[in-house]
Amino acid sequence: MAIHKQSVKEHILEIVSDAGEGAQKAGEVFAKTAARMGNGLWTEAIIPAEIQPPAHGVRSSSGIRIRFGSDFVSNGGDLTNLALVFNEMSLLSRLQIGSLADDVIVIIDDIWSKDPSREIREHYRELLDGIRQRGGRVVEVPLQEETLKIVEEPNPGKNMFALGLLGFVYERNQKLLAAVVSEAFQAKPAEVLRSNLKLLDAGYQWAKVHLDFQFEVPGMQSRKPMLAMNGNQALALGSIAAGFELCSMYPITPATSVSQYLAAIFEEFGGFVHQAEDELAAIGVALGANFAGKPAFTVTSGPGMALKTEFMGLAVMTEIPLVVIDVQRGGPSTGLPTKVEQGDLLSSIFATPGDAPKVVLAASSIGDCFKLMQTARRIAEDFRMLVILLSDANLASGVQLFERPELMLDEIARPMSAGTSHKGDLAYDWQEETGLSKRLIPGRSKEVGMTSSLNHSPAGLVRSDTESNELAHRMRSHKLAALQQALKPPALHGAEQGELLVVGWGSTRGAIEEAVDRLRAAGQRVSSLHLVFLNPLPPGLKEIFGRFKQVMCVEINYADAADDAFVGEGRRYSQLAFLLRAQTLVDVDCFARVCGRALRPMEIAEVLEKKLGGSP
Amino acid sequence: MAIHKQSVKEHILEIVSDAGEGAQKAGEVFAKTAARMGNGLWTEAIIPAEIQPPAHGVRSSSGIRIRFGSDFVSNGGDLTNLALVFNEMSLLSRLQIGSLADDVIVIIDDIWSKDPSREIREHYRELLDGIRQRGGRVVEVPLQEETLKIVEEPNPGKNMFALGLLGFVYERNQKLLAAVVSEAFQAKPAEVLRSNLKLLDAGYQWAKVHLDFQFEVPGMQSRKPMLAMNGNQALALGSIAAGFELCSMYPITPATSVSQYLAAIFEEFGGFVHQAEDELAAIGVALGANFAGKPAFTVTSGPGMALKTEFMGLAVMTEIPLVVIDVQRGGPSTGLPTKVEQGDLLSSIFATPGDAPKVVLAASSIGDCFKLMQTARRIAEDFRMLVILLSDANLASGVQLFERPELMLDEIARPMSAGTSHKGDLAYDWQEETGLSKRLIPGRSKEVGMTSSLNHSPAGLVRSDTESNELAHRMRSHKLAALQQALKPPALHGAEQGELLVVGWGSTRGAIEEAVDRLRAAGQRVSSLHLVFLNPLPPGLKEIFGRFKQVMCVEINYADAADDAFVGEGRRYSQLAFLLRAQTLVDVDCFARVCGRALRPMEIAEVLEKKLGGSP
Amino acid sequence: MDQLPIDEFLTDLCPFEKQLDLDDYLGEAPRWCQGCGDLGILTAVQKLLRDNQAEPTEVVCVSGIGCSSRFPYYLKAFGFHGIHGRALPISTGVALANPKLKVLTVMGDGDCFSIGAGHWVHAIRYNVNLLAMVLDNEIYGLTREQTSPTTPLGTRTRTTPKGAFLPPLNPLQLMLGVSNLSFLAQTATWLPQHLLATLQQAYRHQGLAFVRILQHCPVFSPQAFGEGGKDAELMEFLYHVQGIAIDPALERFGGRREHDPADLATAQRLASEREREPLGLLYQNPDLPSYETIRHAALAHPSPAEKLTLLNRRLDRLAPEG
Amino acid sequence: MDQLPIDEFLTDLCPFEKQLDLDDYLGEAPRWCQGCGDLGILTAVQKLLRDNQAEPTEVVCVSGIGCSSRFPYYLKAFGFHGIHGRALPISTGVALANPKLKVLTVMGDGDCFSIGAGHWVHAIRYNVNLLAMVLDNEIYGLTREQTSPTTPLGTRTRTTPKGAFLPPLNPLQLMLGVSNLSFLAQTATWLPQHLLATLQQAYRHQGLAFVRILQHCPVFSPQAFGEGGKDAELMEFLYHVQGIAIDPALERFGGRREHDPADLATAQRLASEREREPLGLLYQNPDLPSYETIRHAALAHPSPAEKLTLLNRRLDRLAPEG
Ligand SMILES: Cc1ncc(C[n+]2csc(CCOP(=O)(O)OP(=O)(O)O)c2C)c(N)n1
Ligand SMILES: Cc1ncc(C[n+]2csc(CCOP(=O)(O)OP(=O)(O)O)c2C)c(N)n1
Ligand code: SF4
Ligand code: SF4
Ligand SMILES: [Mg+2]
Ligand SMILES: [Mg+2]
């Protein structure tokens, strides 16, 4: 057969099956192989809400979405170019979500065309016709049939046949593919591995004979040392690199896996994971440990953040260093537990009753997840502050290939800021301007100290007079000012001035910058700014905003739409936009959606174009 | 003796003793008598942090501060004109707090001048000399000595002697005073009453012989029907007037007494108080009761609000009507449990992770506490929303004489919004624009309904797709917009335009308006605006602000001072100022203190004057 | 639903008694895993309601968060899928608001014994009238396999990859230590008749009827309870005239022991020695008044107009003249 | 402090052993009410630390919120006045962080049994090495007289002006139902020697030693415990060689009963029958490993450089080449 071979700079591939059929596994092997072949990479897990939902339904789909290319990949990208689906309901689920490109290539098991149920047969046909009508291409393959020639049970098994097939389509190094499969089945009996390798090869061979197209996706040129992992792994490993010794947690999606990664390896580093009875106890144990000199953090998501509110206030009041990670998910309340949202920015800053200054940081990439654990710990200890580090469901399970960070002996070995230890030292010996002070740590200090949730004097004793309450408030607030003064103004992506400035935070960075790059390439005067420090905000924002005609935030959270006819002057802004408006008095607009998925560069570009007044 | 008699429009009186000596009791009787004599009235309790702190210390003082006059009194006023103190440490505590006017009259028990301890004798002298040097007058009286002539134990007892003495000083109707004392000792043995009345008279007689000054404070002219009570009583009685049937709570200062007042009388109205095991359970029970059709509220203060955060998110998500009262106290954390602060505004609006639109109201007077319970319930039920009603420690224990509200049968009898009851009705049948819908109530509705903390469809079923998540968010948000559109622009106190607009909320109203009145009387172009609706904000603010050259918030919470040299561009604004800046983009300034006490008209006037650039 | 032969002629206001059958209690199609023990509990509850001819609009099923807490979606009744650990306070509110409603509270072991532990203890003490079920699979299911308080020592889970560190909490023993306990039973998902019989007795109980249901979870704790009841040595059925009737067919699932549910001390011993898991009624005190009964009994029932008068009278006392 | 005769010549780095005496444990002057039982507990704890020559900088006293929770201010040691109900999680963190510290946890009955109930149950199960004291006055003191879980039925308080609605929680009975319980004793504030002896034994225990202290509060619950121990009929001292020694002078405060603290079943019975309040050691299991021991035993102790190598190796596995 004549093979149409096409070289592309990147491709987005989805592999989707019913839960339990192994599409995810196949995808992980494919992604690992791509990384080894030098491709830039971003993968997203497709996870059903239930453990094992009933088979053959839209809400049962499980799988993976892989964007890989010849450049560094910073986000999940736009629409899917090729989807390998195990059945027509999996296909439907992806159509409903709108993830498939019009010219998508759909590879599907043709067994459903012969299904005993007429309903299924018709639905299958209908869906495939639809794909063709949109301009897509359908490739029907005997996935199950061929698999059954090799093994007795099709599940799992089909997934390896599918993987072999994709190996052919994307010209993967077959040996390498087999090697990665072997690694993946290391722990399984040799026999299992053998049949899987057989299936892999069968898929490849079948494709070679029956398929007439191939894509070449060359690897990156520069080959700096790289790592591939997801954001939760990065938080876990980053916590070790930062010298943490205790992770105190209560399980909650999508945060739990941070602690699970740690549980498997932390002890060899001298650290451990404590699963508490609830989120209040989890943060309480972390706070108590930090108080007594062991670097500890807690990790949770929205509902858990809500439960930690009172303890966060205690951390602020007692000036015990504490890092709290919030892997954000869809809210409010239980909301969308497995989906992404950037909905906890304002609650992170303002949840605690009274005035409770704290630091809020947000990771904007997998690499940030790793690195910011060190930043967070240093600030927490040097400033005796609560630091909330925001990540989200997108980063949590998105695997990215990123530059390998250099480890620093100083950080991994950093003892908890030794505190002070002279007799007579005070528990809160605030520096007059900065509010900074050194701690007294039990068992290390020569002086005892009193730590209190009540308003207190520098000696830690209860005081209820106006002066001491005003002093303590000012000292806690000045620490934020001191930190802000130490921060650099944020760097712009794009030119230093122009028509439109896009401001973002968190996991949207890659998509925003890609959209900006596209528009700039098309001649538009747009730049972007991505904030890692959300509280305090970095200095210079008002000045920067002044260099652009318009400023607009792009976020994955709720805002009343600008063109919502029903909403009057009380328009509710997206969370960062609200903050920036209050702080800079600039009329910051916003584009925000609670879409439960990553924003696509494409949709951002479209919004920006509209804001700019059409194409240039 | 020639008696110097002076007629004054108002006076501020303090009676302060060690805890347990009965100054508070004496003050309450005095205040009640004043009210009966037609005086406008505002009293503040002086409460030590411990139950029975060690005697004779600054932190042991207990007592009352009474502002009474010939006009309606809206706040605690400025400095104290006359202080009757039982010992020199009580006096010192008031000096430290800065509450005494320079020309204060101090009436003090002279027994300390003869104390065996030289230290005490000297301290006593020193303090009294200090008072005289400031321009004050000292009147030493044999409080304990005279008391012991009548009873064997001076405590309590001195307090009634002191009351009698004050009866003379303020020309109180002696019969009336005796009658109010009799009411106060109703429950006690007749003998106790008898000796107290004897002491009262003795005090009066002693004064008549030994004192050479009297003040006349005439009553008000207009005699509309009035009530005297504190804010927590008003909340309790207001809840009955609003038709509530359940108060579910966990004790916390200064909120507990709302439920204590109710506990004593609620059952006769068919309602009851449920003391739960913690704040989470307290709100959970209230939510469950509202869900099942019984109007319920919960009441707490800062730390309790923190603990209710997750449940408040659930209320928003499930659209179960719920009223939460927050009687604010000093924060953060345990903070200043018995002192006032307006520190929970931003946490009330933003604490819940994700987007959780809710209504936030604040009472600005004791009358508001009564009335807003009805407002809160109506909004909660008609809009299916969470309504947070803010009060504070000042209102909680401040007794005011205010116009008696008219009770409405409609409100007291209002059944929980009946909901819908046709077969096939949906749990969330949102109106397209307003987001409003009718509830299905178990046991009343003909159709079952599903209520879920997960994102849900109009039928209440779990949905995780983009469209349904965006729809549900929009519907919840539109309810706020719908409410905002129904609100009137707030009325100005003072002229409709001018140089400076002061914006406030909560218990500072009286003091702000009094300050504004003084400045206006002096020719300054200043007005004020007091917000009851904080979320949504009422319409028209930007337009109103535009009519003034400067806008400034006055609040009892933390802000970096405008002249704080250390703080750079990241100045942290007071809570309302922050909100108004974000919403209106007007450069709203702020004067805010965490002083743990009511702001005085005097200090506000001073700040405003400075802002206006000196006196006119 | 099997329709009565005259149904099609009648409006909703039908004066004839309409027999409710199983179909009337079917909610959404369950989305639990194949073989999940929760399915059997759902069936049992549907039968229970059918047998008692409970009107779905008068039944409120409240849950927390977890696999088990998806229960209300699958039952046709008023459902409230709440937040993790807080099903009992919500249920208490419902029962206090309207004692006529039948409240079913469904929780997981993590939900009730871990994050909900404080409410658990106090709900038992309050003794509100509701039927509380813990679907105990000795694991966190929905979050995919972390230890719960009932996870056996040494069990490998994702947060304890080298094995759980602590001996499990014994929920029966603990509950038998809470004052004002009024009803406690244990049953299991692989014993449908026993499960139904236990729920029947709990349903009839006035006060808080607590039923711990040993729940087979083939995905994350397949080995629990002797692989879901396969080991008869591990179980023991309690029998008594006041207890749960035991079908002779049950004998292959466990031993038998006579136990008087009025005997708290023996119940405590049985629970704490834990030689075998006791199945059946451990304790019942039919005489304890339930909390909402106590509270409602003290209430006056004034008419709105009377309320107005009463309140005005209260205000009079606060008037200066008063 | 009585100074050694050579103190004035020595620096802080003194090689001589310095005897710590009572003054070394005095914090701020206590601000409790006159006659408050908490005062006696403070004295007992100060003696306890003196007797054990505990270095104040190595003692951490953690509390919640309440009258009782003001304790840390009055003791010279590291103090942590936390938030209501959460003293146990904070204490657990301290003990996990540095097992060499001596952790004293002070709670009120509301603090521990009501809002802190979930942590209470789980702390006992975790069995962290700390000495936990509940100062139980059967009332909410600091907030001025609301019912606590241990308030007797019918007691008038400000939230129950017509009397408490429920029988009180029996904390001993409940704790005896928690698995992994390692030490449980009860004593009272009007029995200073017994109080001290009990704390001594608790102090020596490895694991969580829980002591409930019946606390006289003359202001809000003067009638509790037979007016603070005046009724000998209400109390019973437990004695045993392994238990708390009983001074013969105590006989006027209550009866005597032999009780082996290894015997859980009898302890349960004693606690639940509650004919008399048992004073002394109810249960002790000296063999249970404490949680921090278990956790720390599993830890490697790599040097920083080794950590770096190990972490680099972990990263290698995530490198595409790896
Ligand atoms: C406040 C909060 N914390 C944590 C979670 C995450 N979470 C959901 S279910 C669950 C535990 C599930 O275990 P279990 O209660 O035993 O129920 P099962 O799934 O086994 O039926 C957890 C920790 C949550 N949703 N909310
Ligand atoms: C979260 C929170 N809820 C409520 C309170 C108010 N509060 C302070 S102490 C206390 C109870 C005190 O009773 P108890 O624990 O028995 O201690 P006691 O004062 O009797 O020693 C309460 C409810 C609080 N400070 N924080
Ligand atoms: S994971 Fe276990 S408990 Fe959850 S649905 Fe599946 S089988 Fe049932
Ligand atoms: S109120 Fe009671 S417990 Fe509190 S200090 Fe006074 S006597 Fe002690
Ligand atoms: Mg479970
Ligand atoms: Mg107490």
Structure description:
Chain A has 616 residues and is α/β, with parallel strands linked by helices. Chain A has four domains: 4-216, Pyruvate-ferredoxin Oxidoreductase, domain 3 (3-Layer(aba) Sandwich); 227-412, Rossmann fold, CATH 3.40.50.970; 420-486, no CATH class; 492-612, Rossmann fold. Helix content of chain A is 38%, strand content 21%. In chain A, the strands form four sheets. Chain A has an eight-stranded mixed sheet, sandwiched between helices. In chain A, helix 1 packs across helix 6, helix 6 (174-184) runs antiparallel to helix 7 and helix 8 (231-241) packs parallel to helix 13 (366-383). The longest helix of chain A is centred in the first third of the chain and has 21 residues, at 190-210. Chain A is globular and about 85 Å long. Chain C is of the alpha/beta class. Chain C has helices at residues 37-51, 71-74, 87-97, 109-114, 117-126, 171-175, 192-204, 224-229, 264-273, 291-297, 304-318; strands at 59-63, 78-81, 102-108, 130-136, 183-188, 208-214, 235-239, 255-258, 277-284. A nine-stranded mixed sheet of chain C has the order 2-1-3-4-6-5-9-7-8, sandwiched between helices. In chain C, strand 1 (59-63), helix 2 and strand 2 (78-81) form a beta-alpha-beta unit. In chain C, helix 1 packs across helix 7 (192-204). Chain C is globular, with a radius of gyration of 22 Å. Classes of the chains: A alpha/beta (616), C alpha/beta (322). Strand 17 (450-452) of chain B pairs parallel with strand 2 of chain C. Bound molecules: thiamine diphosphate (TPP) (2 copies), iron/sulfur cluster (2 copies) and magnesium ion (2 copies). Residues 66, 108-110, 137, 139-141, 148 of chain D line the site of one magnesium ion (MG).
Salient structural properties:
heterotetramer; A: 616 residues; alpha/beta; Pyruvate-ferredoxin Oxidoreductase, domain 3; Rossmann fold; 7-stranded mixed beta sheet; C: 322 residues; 9-stranded mixed beta sheet; globular; disordered N terminus; binds thiamine diphosphate; binds iron/sulfur cluster; binds magnesium ion
